């Protein structure tokens, strides 16, 4: 006898609950479940997710953290809409190959990978690992030449205007990630303007 399926689940989780793949695909074809990504499903009767793409990617690669422009969007630090879900994995970790949703993978240093990590509720009761606003701003400053200096500086300015901004934490993370100089200079310019 099969056990109930959680709102979002993988093919492997369905099998562990006694559901044969043939039955799972019948459920998909009948509209009882929706396929979010290859091997990741969501019950049709589950609450609508706020971040369905992040939910799908998190189930495909649990070790990853949502980062960069995707994390900026989660924290309302940009109006940019990334073309791909941006995730980070620790260096040495095999990067996932995900066709849908389109995904861009960054490899971050293992020693600093967990710094500033947090979670966001992608769907009710379903957290997804994401870098917090301070870490995301620091990452954007580190990767500003690759991802766009205007996006990075805009995110920094937007962050500094927030009531919950913690510039000290931002500087501590920048120091730990070896970008203290550029972040401090950008904060000085943003504060002067």
Automatic annotation (TrEMBL):
Domain AbiEi antitoxin N-terminal: 7-43
A Pfam family per the record: AbiEi_4
Recorded superkingdom: Bacteria
The protein's name in its UniProt record: Type IV toxin-antitoxin system AbiEi family antitoxin domain-containing protein
Source organism (scientific name): Actinokineospora guangxiensis
Lineage of the species this protein comes from: Bacteria, Bacillati, Actinomycetota, Actinomycetes, Pseudonocardiales
């Amino acid at each position: 006898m099969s056990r109930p399926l959680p709102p979002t689940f993988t093919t492997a989780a369905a099998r562990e609950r006694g559901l044969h793949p043939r039955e799972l695909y019948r459920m998909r074809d009948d509209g009882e479940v929706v396929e979010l990504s290859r091997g990741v499903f969501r019950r049709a009767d589950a609450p609508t997710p706020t971040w369905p793409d992040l939910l799908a990617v998190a189930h495909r690669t649990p070790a990853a953290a949502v980062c960069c422009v995707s994390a900026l969007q989660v924290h309302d630090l940009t109006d940019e809409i990334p073309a791909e879900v941006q995730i980070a994995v620790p260096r040495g970790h095999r990067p996932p190959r995900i066709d849908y949703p389109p995904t861009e993978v960054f490899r971050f240093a293992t020693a600093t990978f967990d710094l500033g990590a947090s979670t966001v509720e992608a769907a009710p009761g379903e957290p997804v690992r994401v870098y917090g606003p301070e870490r995301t701003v620091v990452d954007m400053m580190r990767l500003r030449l690759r991802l766009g200096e205007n996006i990075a500086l805009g995110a920094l300015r937007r962050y500094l205007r927030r009531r919950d901004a913690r510039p000290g934490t931002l500087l501590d993370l920048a120091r730990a990630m070896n970008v203290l100089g550029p972040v401090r200079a950008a904060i000085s310019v943003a504060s002067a303007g």
